[in-house]
Amino acid sequence: MNRIFAALLVLFLFIKGKGQAENINSGKYHPAKEHFETKYIKQEYSKYPKSQITIEKDKVIINVINSIEFPENLDNRFKLLLGSGLLNPMIINGSPIIKILAMDELPLLNVNPQTKRFKFWIFRTNEFLENEISKALLINSANPNEYYFELYNENADTNTSFNDFIEGAKLTYLGYGGIII
Questions:
Q1: Residue 52 phi/psi, 5° resolution?
Q2: For residues 45 and 88, is the Cβ–Cβ distance under 8 A?
Q3: Which of 61, 85, 86, 128 is 20 to 30 A from 162 via CA?
Q4: 68: CB partners within 8 A, 6+ apart
Q5: Confidence band (pLDDT; 50, 70, 90) for 143?
Q6: Which has the closest alpha carbon to 113: 47, 149, 157?
Q7: For residues 58 and 95, what is the distance between their CA atoms, to the nearest angstrom?
Q8: pLDDT at position 11, please?
């Protein structure tokens, strides 16, 4: 009986999730929209050259000491993005190693064809933290942190492929969204 109930519950949630249209004022968009409206300040970050990037099975190594780990099932578009040199763990949260749990594009928040906005969740590793208080807080943290970022490609238009967009993109915003509860 429990299996039937569980199967029906999963089926119901799947159908409900697929039947909902994306809404910029709810779901995954609500906190992101609020974040970009209140904390967004356009910036420009440097991009690592491809010669300083090594891509392994589930890890991008940047400049030998920094790395971004990601799940094997991460969408190939996001693997391309992580391997592009646009994101650097040290500017994300001050740690040379981050583990990305999930990444998602937020197309309803893109203000024009030259802009793409994203969010990702990470667990920060404590291997390189020097401050004992930070280590203690991290060890006691069971929840991931959410970050938002924006890429800008001045040559992009509505027909630009994702790969071409990433190739010519610059990181123009990176912000901490909060702890996922």
A1: -105, 10
A2: yes
A3: 61
A4: 59, 60, 62, 82, 87, 89, 97, 98, 100
A5: confident
A6: 157
A7: 18
A8: 45
